[in-house]
């Protein structure tokens, strides 16, 4: 009897080890945890327990166990470190950075494994950067760069190169260009040195290219133009993302170096080679300014006019060009042409500064040069103003704006409403609509906010147009769930986007909207755009693949859908992974590949254990496979097991009951089947003949 406890503990250890090998994780964890320190199996049990906690698919249970466990052994402390880091990464991939933060800190509280410590420190630094907490990010990335000197197997996504790149941006955002310069230079040099070994396309192309350009910017800010040109030319030569900007900056430097004609030539080449560049309008404007600085007013007219003609719907420099053309006409003595140009500003949604400059110029022409103040007053009145009205207009708008700036949003809404009611054609109507929409948004009164954002959008291109489109799209999608409207807004935003980041967000929003309302052709087109966009992260490309695969599945194009669902499973850790596993099983069943379908369904507990509803749905398909194979016994067993163990979605449980009922009918028919006697069959036929 004295040996029974020893035998019991020995049996427990071997049972736990068997559970470990069979991937019955919870039983194995519980068993290993009960092995006492006096047991000869204790050391091995602790080792296996720590390995299992780190590798189990049931991360939540591992965390729950570690919270209550006494971390006496180094193995458990290391498991605590790695499991909390793993959970933090899951949350970050799900864009839940605020929830990931405490898990990273807990991981760093037991820094047993140097690699995990370094990676957690890097993630913390990157997370702080994304939250715009630049000082904290600087501190954590400095720690990481120190730790990295003793570690050789860092992954590319947590490498020294990326740390230097992010640290460069930290200092850039805090206007410390000298410190930023050193880190960007280190990032560029490191990536170029290791380029043949770096597999991550984003690091090879986007990070490297951007770091090269930002290095040039830092030199530019410090007035070190030859050094800046070296990096801008590198970006241009290798056509890194943003090389249009580098060409534009190179031209600006030529002007600053006293080479205005070389500057103009460089800008003209940028326009002719890349007329759709985000900097083509800036280049035209700079050419016009350069000719003005050279005293060549006739030559400056053409670039300003071309800017207005070619980029009227996309550039925020249109009114600036009209103002310059008005000034040129005025200086050339053509007062009527100057008036016409300044009036164009008033008709083109100017901001306050542009409107004020135009009115000041018109006032000078009418009152001083033409001695016709009445014509100036008539101009104001034709726009809905008298002289006194204009003063009251500005004062009332300023009053509303003061409330807005002070954060008194309810009062500001009332004040903007009064302004719009009194001055429906006022100087600040566009600003009033936009800022009132902003007030409504802050107060989460989204149904009212979108009315004003739509008014801004309806009025066409302005400095508020892009932002109004973006916010109207977000409200339509997230709060009104009007996906038809959000799709239209996102599509307009893609066209109006001022940079690639906003253009990508528009594509992604349009994709999600189109998927929600079943616009299949647009889903396929937009999914390809998102997957091809360098801005997309793994989660976003995975989501796009899923949407495309789902459309192809619905269209029964299974051969095209199957590899996409497989990629989604390898790429995502979300509900879409579970659904993809289930849909792959559906495809195999639909193709009547019953062996593969059965095998795939049986793998669901291993591959997607955290997504119970999709495991349950796989069991439903498994029962269908057994029915097709006339294995009613196993079909019934599968369904009864589902009903015993799954308490989730009632519709799934009802499907299981319905299938059981059908199996009961099939079993009943099978039991009543009796082979007919040939003579009886003949008699039945004779009766029928009569």
Quick overview of this protein structure:
78% of the residues lie in helices and 0% in strands.
Describe the structure in your own words.
This protein has about 700 residues and is mostly helical. About 80% of the residues lie in helices and about 0% in strands. It has helices at about 5-20, 25-35, 40-55, 60-70, 75-95, 95-110, 115-130, 135-145, 160-175, 175-195, 200-220, 225-240, 245-255, 260-275, 280-295, 295-310, 320-330, 335-345, 350-370, 375-380, 385-405, 410-420, 430-440, 445-460, 465-480, 485-495, 500-515, 520-530, 540-555, 560-570, 575-590, 595-600, 605, 610-630, 630-645, 650-670, 680-690.
Task: Outline the biggest β-sheet.
Answer: none
Share in β-strands:
under 5%
Shape, principal axes of CA atoms: globular
Q: Which structural class matches the secondary elements?
A: mainly alpha
What's the multimeric state? single chain
Question: How many β-strands, per DSSP?
Answer: 0
The value of Rg in angstroms is 35 Å
CA-CA gap between termini: 86 Å
Average residue pLDDT: 86
Unreliable runs: 674-690
Helix amount, in percent? over 70%
Work out the helix count. Answer: 37
């Amino acid at each position: 009897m004295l040996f029974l406890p020893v035998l019991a503990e020995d049996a427990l250890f071997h049972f736990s080890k068997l559970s470990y090998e069979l991937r019955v994780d919870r039983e194995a964890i519980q068993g290993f945890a009960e092995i006492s320190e006096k047991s000869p199996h204790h050391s091995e049990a602790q080792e296996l327990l720590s390995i299992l906690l780190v590798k189990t698919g049931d991360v939540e249970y591992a965390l729950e166990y570690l919270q209550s466990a006494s971390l006496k052994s180094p193995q458990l402390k290391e498991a605590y470190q790695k499991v909390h880091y793993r959970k933090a990464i899951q949350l970050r991939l799900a864009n839940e950075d605020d929830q990931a933060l405490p898990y990273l800190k807990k991981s760093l509280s037991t820094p047993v494994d140097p690699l995990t410590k370094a990676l957690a420190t890097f993630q913390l630094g990157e997370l702080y950067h994304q939250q715009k907490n630049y000082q904290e990010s600087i501190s954590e990335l400095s720690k990481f760069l120190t730790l990295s000197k003793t570690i050789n197997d860092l992954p590319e996504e947590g490498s020294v190169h990326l740390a230097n790149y992010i640290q460069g941006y930290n200092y850039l955002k805090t206007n410390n260009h000298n410190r930023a310069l050193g880190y960007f230079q280190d990032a560029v040099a490191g990536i170029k040195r290791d380029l043949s070994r770096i597999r991550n396309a984003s690091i090879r192309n986007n990070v490297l290219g951007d770091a090269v350009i930002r290095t040039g910017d830092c030199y530019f800010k410090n007035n070190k133009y030859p050094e800046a040109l070296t990096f801008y030319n590198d970006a241009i030569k290798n056509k890194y993302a943003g090389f249009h900007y580098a060409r534009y900056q190179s031209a600006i430097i030529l002007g600053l170096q006293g080479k205005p004609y070389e500057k103009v030539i460089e800008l003209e080449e940028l326009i002719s080679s890349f007329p759709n560049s985000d900097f083509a309008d800036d280049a035209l404007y700079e050419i016009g300014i350069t000719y003005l600085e050279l005293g060549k007013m006739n030559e400056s007219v053409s670039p300003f006019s071309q800017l207005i003609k070619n980029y009227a719907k996309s550039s925020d420099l249109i009114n600036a060009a009209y103002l310059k053309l008005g000034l040129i006409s005025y200086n050339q003595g053509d007062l009527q042409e100057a008036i016409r140009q300044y009036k164009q500003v008033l008709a083109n949604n100017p901001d306050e500064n542009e409107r004020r400059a135009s009115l000041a110029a018109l006032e000078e022409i009418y009152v001083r040069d033409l001695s016709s103040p009445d014509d100036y007053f008539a101009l104001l009145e034709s726009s809905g103003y008298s002289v006194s009205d204009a003063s009251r207009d500005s004062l009332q708008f300023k009053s509303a704006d003061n409330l807005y700036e002070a954060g008194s949003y309810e009062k500001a809404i009332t004040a903007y409403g009064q302004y719009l009611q009194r001055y429906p054609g006022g100087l600040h109507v566009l600003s009033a609509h936009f800022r009132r929409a902003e007030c409504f948004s802050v107060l989460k009164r989204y149904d009212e906010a979108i009315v004003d954002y739509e008014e801004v959008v309806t009025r066409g291109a302005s400095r508020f147009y892009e932002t109004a489109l973006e916010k109207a799209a977000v409200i339509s999608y997230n709060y009104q769930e009007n996906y038809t409207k959000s799709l239209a807004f996102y599509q307009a935003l893609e066209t109006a986007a001022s940079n690639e980041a906003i253009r990508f967000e528009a594509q992604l929003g349009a994709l999600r909207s189109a998927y929600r309302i079943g616009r299949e052709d647009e889903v396929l087109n937009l999914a390809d755009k998102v997957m091809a966009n360098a801005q997309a992260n793994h989660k976003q490309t995975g989501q796009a693949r899923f949407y495309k695969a789902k459309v192809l599945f619905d269209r029964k194009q299974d051969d095209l859908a199957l590899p996409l669902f497989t990629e989604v499973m390898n790429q995502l850790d979300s509900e879409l992974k579970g659904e993809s596993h289930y849909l792959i099983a559906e495809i195999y069943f639909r193709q009547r590949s019953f062996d593969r379908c059965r095998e795939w369904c049986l793998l669901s507990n291993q591959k997607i254990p955290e997504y119970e509803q999709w495991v349950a749905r796989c069991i439903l398909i498994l029962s269908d496979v057994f029915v097709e194979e006339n294995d009613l016994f196993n079909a019934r067993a599968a369904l009864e097991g589902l009903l015993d163990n799954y308490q989730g979605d009632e519709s799934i449980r009802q499907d299981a009951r319905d299938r059981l009922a059908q199996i009961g009918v099939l079993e009943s028919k099978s039991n009543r089947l009796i082979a007919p006697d040939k003579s009886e069959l003949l008699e039945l036929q004779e009766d029928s003949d009569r």
